[in-house]
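We were asked to recover a plausible sequence for a given structure. The inputs and outputs are reproduced exactly as logged, with field labels preserved.

PROBLEM: sequence recovery
POSITIONS: 51
GIVEN STRUCTURE:
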C-alpha cells in the first residue's frame, strides 16, 4: 500500500491531476499506520497476521 501511494503521488505530480495526488497521500498514510501497528505486534483488523 505504501508503494502504491508513492507511485500515485509521483504520477499525480507529473500529470498535475490533484485527485490522484490526494489518493496517493491517503494510501501512503494508511499504509504507514498499518505497517507501524503490524510492526508493534498489535492485531490489525482482528487479525494477528495478513497473508
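RECOVERED SEQUENCE:
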Amino acid at each position: 500500500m505504501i508503494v502504491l501511494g508513492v507511485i500515485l503521488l509521483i504520477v499525480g505530480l507529473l500529470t498535475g491531476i490533484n485527485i490522484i495526488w490526494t489518493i496517493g497521500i491517503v494510501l501512503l498514510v494508511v499504509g504507514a499506520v498499518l505497517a507501524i501497528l503490524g510492526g508493534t505486534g498489535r492485531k490489525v483488523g482482528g487479525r494477528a497476521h495478513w497473508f
